[in-house]
């Protein structure tokens, strides 16, 4: 299996895209919009989405729940999923199919989860799909029952106990608490890893489609399972924290340097636009350009309000931006235009280079001979800008003269 089917991937994220929260009309409208904007894939969950219990009404499709805790599979749901994914395919969009979220394997057990995945593969394998074993594979170790049977994460106690502390102290205490949590749950972590590895092995016996896994922010896809050779590419999520700014580009470089991205690398969950009222257009374009220039195989976009089909109330602890507000964002169009520029100028034989000043990234680019594509997060901070075509990511257009500030991409063919 190669990563060729994931090369150049540009995906949007619709975790609740197969639930009744997203009507047929809105599903088709959004699919057509993303296809026109240059996206090539949609991430969605064929099963119970994240943040809700299996009996929560928000997990329900127009034809019912995917499955029940006693192991009953809803065949009508699988046909509904097929119909929606087939529609994506007619627009040239591949479906990145998530079969579950990481903690849900404790609800069903590895045998029943394998059965669920076999049902998915039987239903979808002739379509244009990429399979993702699960989302956040090591989520909620030892706390898997918190959402049962019908809760949402909005009903759970505040998890960030340090939220009111100064940022530096909060970051330190959060890191210490996380290390302690990992140590205390090391056995459960390994058991979860082995369980998902069992399901992955079963999946690989039934399909030749690419398989990936969505890990937690402190590991990569290759760490999440004991049999990473079954995965098409390595993966990560850098999460929704401003402190991930440098991790966006340092992680793919690190993985390549250590031989852990030879088949490719994709960040499946960088900053969502509008989550926590943060990470707007300039951040999204920064995430796109630094990730791709650092060696990512593809890029995944997400927006608060789209992933949860938000109404300002449902899962609004992540942000109150609604579906309608998120659909109106211009960022996906701009990312699509930047993606066209990247694909046009990217040379697989090129080598990455970058310049930092302290912790700040000044520029990152790729060069092969005289061929060049180079990103400046803020051209005002650059010591030198080479001659070439000037692309303004925030405008989605070329410029005749170099601006005095703001993000800039310089490209040169020879």
Characteristic terms for this protein:
alpha/beta, 2 domains, six-stranded antiparallel beta sheet, TIM Barrel, 14 strands, eight-stranded parallel beta sheet, globular, 414 residues
Question: What is the compact description of this entry?
Answer:
This protein has 414 residues and is an alpha/beta fold.
CATH class of the largest domain: Alpha Beta
Spatial order of the strands in the main sheet?
A: 5-4-3-2-1-8-7-6
Beta-strand percent range? 15-25%
Rounded radius of gyration (Å): 21 Å
Report the mean per-residue pLDDT as an integer: 95
Summarize the helix and strand pattern as letters: EHEHEHHEHHEHEHEHEHHEEEEEE
pLDDT < 50 stretches: none
Structural domains: how many: 2
Helix content, binned percent: 25-40%
Number of strands: 14
Here the CATH topology of the largest domain equals: TIM Barrel
Q: Give the CATH architecture of the largest domain.
A: Alpha-Beta Barrel
Total helices: the number is 11
Helix/sheet category: alpha/beta
Gap from first CA to last CA = 34 Å
Shape designation: globular
Reported for the largest beta sheet, the result is: 8 strands, parallel
